[in-house]
Structure formats: C-alpha cells, structure tokens
Amino acid sequence: MARTPQEIFQSHVTAIGAGDVDAVVADYAEDAVLITPDGVTRGRDGIRQVFTSLLGDLPDAQWTAPTQVYEGDVLFVEWTAVAEKARAEGVDTFVFSGNSIRVQTVRLTLERTP
Fold it and tell me: Where are its TM segments located (predicted)?
C-alpha cells in the first residue's frame, strides 16, 4: 500500500534527524529531481551526495519544520536546523508520486557559528 505524502515526509524528517543518508535517499524515486539555486541534481546517487554534504555541515543538528502546507501531492515546508557549529534555514517544495518523493526544490542559508 502506498504511503501518503504526510507519511513519506515523516519518514524523510526522521531519517534526516537520525543522520541516516541511506534512509533519506530511500524516500526518493529512482529518477527523482532535486532543484537548488546551484542547479539540478538527478537520481538517487546525486541526491545522496547532496544530503551527505548537508548532513556533514550540520552533524547532530536539531531539525524543525514549523510550516508544512500540503495540497494533494505537493508540500511546502519552512525549516531550520541547528548544530553545534552551524545553523541553516530553508524553504522546500516537495512533489510526491506513488510511494516516494519525485521532485524537491530547496533554498537554504547555511551559517557557520563560532
């Protein structure tokens, strides 16, 4: 049985909070697209590289997503992550298809803290 967008996103948040890149990537379709101001990343291998870098910048961060607006298979999210030596704030849009994330857009600001 296919998961709802809410269930897929909850899995995604849990995996990010645990720093589990394999579980993060498993929530994406094999041909998923991740779009950032730096360009377009295609497929799970590329998405793995993006999250390996992000989680490396924010090890053991506390993640919150206070704004979550669902409309059918689309989700708009505002989030923050606070780690010992860095902080990030971002705005994402997700498009879900079947049992996975098909498209994600990300705009984030990462600040190193002393």
Answer: none
